[in-house]
Each structure stands twice: as C-alpha cells, then as structure tokens.
Amino acid sequence: MIRLENITKIYPGTTAKAVFDLTLEIPEGSTTALIGPSGCGKTTTMRLINRLEDATRGRVFVNGEDVTAVDPVQLRRQIGYVIQNVGLFPHMNIADNIATVPRLLGWDRRKTDARIDELLHLVGLDPAADRGRYPAELSGGQRQRVGVARALAADPPVMLMDEPFGAIDPLVRGRLQNEFKQILQRVKKTVVIVTHDLDEAIKMGDRIAIMRDGKLCQYATPEAILSKPADDFVAAFIGSDASLKLLALTPVGQAMTPAAQSGYPLSVNARASLKDVLALMLAQDAPGVRVTDDQHQVLGELNRQQLFHYQQTLLAA
Ligand SMILES: Nc1ncnc2c1ncn2[C@@H]1O[C@H](COP(=O)(O)OP(=O)(O)OP(=O)(O)O)[C@@H](O)[C@H]1O
C-alpha cells in the first residue's frame, strides 16, 4: 500500500507549489493512473514515492513505512521503476540489463538466469533468441518490454511507471497496454502509472487520480470518473465522449439478458465491450446479438434498445 499524506512539494529556488496538500491512498495490489495537464505535478508525485524527490511538507508511506526513515537505495530496490525510453544500458545485452538488481542483491547465477528466462517469457520475448541481443537491436516496443522485465526482476511489491508507452506508436501501444494489464494482474503489484492519455488511464487504472495545478481534483474508479465527474474541470478533461468510453469499459456479458438460446444470428463473445458490440450491430444492421462463452455456448442476448438503456443506467450509476 502507498499512502501520501498532505504532501506539498516546492522545488528549491522556486516559490510555486508543484504539488499542494495531496492526500492519496493506493491500495495494495491495485493500479492507480495519475493524469492531468502538463505541469500539474504527476511526475513529481511519482518521484516522491521512490524518493527521487523529497516532500517539502507531508509524509509518504510505502508498505506502512515512512519513506524518509528508509535508506533511499534500499527503498528503490523494492520499487520497480519504468520510464519512457526505458533507459536500458546500451553496452549491456538484454540478460545483463534485466540482471542489474538481482546482481546487486547478490543472487547466484543460476537463480538470476532462471529469473531472466521467466521474465522474458512473461513480457512476450523469446529467452533463447533475445537474451544476448543489445538494446540498439530491438524495436521501441521490445525495449519497453525489457524495461518492464528489468523493473520486475527482483519482484518488487511496488511498480512506478512514468509514461511507459509514450514513445511507442499507437498500434503497438494498445497491444502492450493490454499485455501489461494482464501481467500486472498476474503478478499482483501495487502500481502507479503516469500518463497523458485518458484512454490509457481508463484501460490500465483500477482508479484514476486527476490532478490540476498540483492538486487532486478527483480520485475514483474509471466508471465513477466518467459517469460522475467531480467538477467542471474533470468534466471538460474527460470530454464529450465519456458515454462512449463507459461503453468501452463494459463487457457485453454484464449487460445481456441471460438466455439458453437466442434468435439473433450475430454472435459475440461475452468479454467483448459494449462499444464494439454497438459498432458491430450498426455495421451489420443487426437489431441484436447472441452472447456466447469461449466454447460458443449461448449465455444470453442483447438488443439495441437494451444496450442504450444499459448505457443510461451506467451514466446514472
Ligand atoms: N527539478 C525541478 N525544479 C523546479 N521546478 C520543477 C522541477 N521539476 C518540475 N518542476 C515544476 O513542477 C511542476 C510540476 O512538474 P511535473 O513534472 O511534476 O508535472 P507533470 O504533470 O509530470 O508534467 P508533464 O505532464 O509535462 O510531464 C511544473 O510546474 C514544473 O515546471
């Protein structure tokens, strides 16, 4: 668990408050996305957690310990850190890059090698082929995977990710987001991810913290932010397509009427989002869909009217 208590940060030589009286609690095992306009204090907030910055006022706790009471180097070994463009060591191959922290921790060679293979596998790289390659020989997306593997190497309970997908083209970014969301669910880390991209925050975050001028405007689930923005700023920030974003968050299995059979020929998987199902219904001019499981068994059905009605209930929730 990460807890920031009434944090204010004023950088030396300045008078402006980069972060002002921020209180935020990130439950263990959950992911929080920090989002807001440029300069609102996202990166500062993240760097206060691993003590790359110290707070001017207030306290930060990581797993119950005040971070100022822990040796910073010791603290950072418990916190994986992923930044844009990764910062891999160019003169080291992939295996050596991933092994940095395990070696600092004095792991023996066999344990380190096994961990490298396990992690390359986890992030979708091929241990046999990729171990010996150098960062310059990889694509941006592959480098980012290595960056995440390196951050996970010593199995830290906390992961900080600062715009981890910012430098990657949109298509690959979408795929990496999905993969990392699954990985993070599997490894059960407490994660803070800084992003400029609301869609990324919605996709990755169990909760979203929206900041403005160093202050926290709203801290809630993506559903709550989209359906009940706390003020005009948040409403403007999420924009006019909030209802479409809500549909994108909701699986059709949640909205369908359960049934053992369906007269609709068009079939969709229960995990498909309502946004995709709506697009499909419109494209195929279908009045409704049958909803099936992975074995193509019918679980229920949903027609257009029910979908729009469900959208209203999401907005009113
Ligand atoms: N080292 C520093 N010295 C002085 N001021 C700083 C320093 N780092 C950041 N700031 C200021 O603190 C404020 C918050 O910066 P921060 O980088 O946390 O914002 P951000 O929300 O992450 O921005 P961006 O989205 O552009 O990366 C800004 O006004 C910035 O200019």
TrEMBL record:
GO terms for biological process: quaternary ammonium group transport. It comes from the Bacteria. The keyword Cell membrane does not apply. SUPFAM superfamilies: CBS-domain pair (SSF54631), P-loop containing nucleoside triphosphate hydrolases (SSF52540). Residues 2-238 form the ABC transporter domain. Transmembrane segments: none annotated. Keywords: ATP-binding, Nucleotide-binding, Transport. SMART domains: AAA (SM00382). GO terms for molecular function: ATP binding; ATP hydrolysis activity. Belongs to the ABC transporter superfamily. PANTHER family: OSMOPROTECTANT IMPORT ATP-BINDING PROTEIN OSMV (PTHR43117:SF4). This is ATP-binding cassette domain-containing protein. The lineage of its organism: Bacteria, Pseudomonadati, Pseudomonadota, Gammaproteobacteria, Enterobacterales.
